[in-house]
Amino acid sequence: MSALAALFTIAAAAAQTVSGGAGDPQPSGPRRISAPAEKYTVSPGGVDMRTGMFVYKQTDISIGGEGESGGLSLDRITAPNPYGHLTPFGGMFSSNWEIMLTDKRIDIFRGLNDDNSGPDYRIRIFFGGRSETFSGYGNQTGFIQMSQNPLTSLTYTGDRASGTALYTFTATDGTAVTFRPVAGMDCSAQIRCAYVSTIVEPDGTLLSFDYDYDAAAVGNRARLRSITSSRGYALVLEGGGNLTTKACVLNLTQAPLPANRLCPANAPATVTYSYSGGQLTGVTTASNVTQSFTYSANNVGFVKPGQSTPWLTNSYGGNGGGDEDFASWSIVGAQSFADGQSYTYSYDYAPEIDGKPDVLAGGSYTDALAHKTIVRFDFPLMPNATNPGYVFGGGYPYVNFGDLVYQVTPGPTQIIDPLDRKTTFDYCDRVAAAGYPSYERNRCVVGRLQSFTDPEGAKTDLYYDASRTVSKAVRHAKVGSNQEDITTLATHSCGDASLAKICAKPTSVTDARQRTTDYAYDPAHGGVLTETGPAGANGVRPQTRYSYAQRTAWIANGTGWVAAGPPVWLLVRKSLCKVGAATAVGCAVAGDEIVTIYDYGPDAGPNNLRLRGMVVDDGGLSLRTCYAYDTLGNKISETKPRASLGSCP
After folding, report:
1. Tens digit of pLDDT for each residue in 463-518?
2. Can you tell me the distance from the alpha carbon of 437 to that of 15, in angstroms, rounded to the nearest whole number?
3. Gap between the terminal Cα atoms of the chain
4. Among 519, 566, 596, 459, which residue's Cα sits nearest to residue 201?
5. Which run of H or E residues covers position 176?
6. DSSP state of 54
7. 3-state percent breakdown (helix, strand, coil) of the chain, nearest 5
8. pTM (2 d.p.)
9. Contact by Cβ (8 Å): 648, 599
10. Which of 294, 380, 410, 542 fits a 20 to 30 Å CA distance from 199?
11. What is the Cα–Cα distance from 236 to 61, expressed in whole angstroms?
12. Nearest C-alpha neighbor of 45 from the set 398, 315, 423
């Protein structure tokens, strides 16, 4: 059971009393329980209504094919940044590779989370513009996932107190992210902060990160200079200080990674960046077109290549956002678009707490036609029925009788469109609420989304299992409709760390007609092994089977080719039965099997392990399809299935 699930279970049993004594905490005044923003709630203009931040992403350069494991891309994004962090593209612009861990000391017992002191730990993982938050007691080795996202974990080796520990974050899909020691002051001048060191994807693909490091700097000592993929690709970043001035991608099957980590003249693709006063003013891509940015007062303009005026201007009004975990960003007050559309924003804040930063959550936006949309979050008081009350687990503090402890919902509780149509969302754990005494007025323990109701009054209830993903969804029929409720189910297999790569994947899915599809996975890499559908008219459950093998990419070393790194898992075979049932070794009916074989080229160099071909064999005819790629890994040709083709080049 996850820590947060344990919190809900214990709270449901009833608020428990801790014996009073001289050491028990006393009422400490208003407090907030607010995990940093985890998900986007984006307006039509691209502004996140949870933070007021403009959500931006632009891919400048890539290699390895879109969506392919092991490929690399460089994306400019906007993201919350740890206090004291200097971004690689200046000002508001960050990178998809700004993957950071911050270590803050807190006091869980007394609810002191914002002064960076105390015996306990608050660890925050920054990635892709959002974050995952964990808390841990100083006298225990484990961490509690504070965020409401599907199940993730955080472990470490070494000494936390000295900052030399190596933390490993395991994502929902089993991806393992290991960080450098926080004592190195990699990415902030104000708090302990470390950059990512390696990423191991579920299939075994290894991404290795290399940094320039200035030990004499006060903070922001590290600057990313290269990322290497075990699929035979690399991303090189040149620059000075914190700023990136040039980036290129390399296919390592063609030439080795330069020892000086500088972009060679013959790099397959290069992008350059220009600045003025530390602000990004231009991005020139591999196709020699330039996107530019303008700055005036509190305005930022986005100018497309070949244009002289912005297609979008964001007005920030001098406002800045932040949270109690030492992150900051810029808040958009208004937007104007070249097509005449515009949006103005008004924001709501959680109840004010003396000495703590204001927490923005929700508000409204109004377009050029005065159409207003309201996005409301909620700030329910934590239940505090006993004296002193106590919520066990979850890393939450004591809640004393008379204390005002506010929570912030992870998503909006109400969205009202310009026609006054309301969609509502409930985050108050239903089991916990049922367990409190009848006289307890504050019955909400904020958790994952419990239900939502559309403007027509149709309500959908959501239930979760140990994977922290939805295991049951019930869409209730509208009152008076004479329709039945619609129920869908999913099961998951979660246990110890060996199941991390499959925990969030359903082992069965049952649709509204009660038809069930079953799945089996390989815990070594998370790939599906069998997919067994519901029985057809003949009573047979169709099954598709998948087989995998480990392969190694081969890269250049100056004199030939060598293995690029650890092997990765690749799909090599898929099979199914046309009409009959499947058996442990094939099909019950002779000649009934259709087999697809996947070809990734020879076990020799050069080889990036891209799919070179596949053969579909139905027992009577084999048809082969071949693929070819350019140096950047983009598919440039595909043959039609042919029976006479013996192999792919």
Report:
1. 999 889 999 999 998 888 888 999 999 999 998 788 999 999 999 999 999 999 99
2. 8
3. 51
4. 566
5. strand 176-179
6. B
7. 5, 45, 55
8. 0.89
9. yes
10. 410
11. 11
12. 315
